[in-house]
Specification:
Radius of gyration: 27 Å
Shape: elongated
Strand content: under 5%
Length: about 100
Amino acid sequence: MPTLSELQIQRGRLLERVACQRAAMREKIAPVQRALDTADRAVAGIQAGALYLKRRPWMIGLMAAAVFALKGRRVFRLLKRGFILWRTWRSLRDNLSSGLGSLVF
């Protein structure tokens, strides 16, 4: 039967091994954590958008009327242009804010 000091040494080694394993797991999980954070932000944005539209049902009717009035192809062309403009704006804002630091965009 091991003595108390041998058990304490063995326990210390096991605790050190567990700490190393935890550190290795943290490093391996980091990319997954970033992806999950991005997914969480996307879900929160979608939920906020749904809540916004739920509180303003007239906007849904307005969008449906626009689709009907402008014929489908024209609406999708406008949506595509708007999406491209939005992406360009975000890219410019991110590039400018990272380069200029203190200015708020």
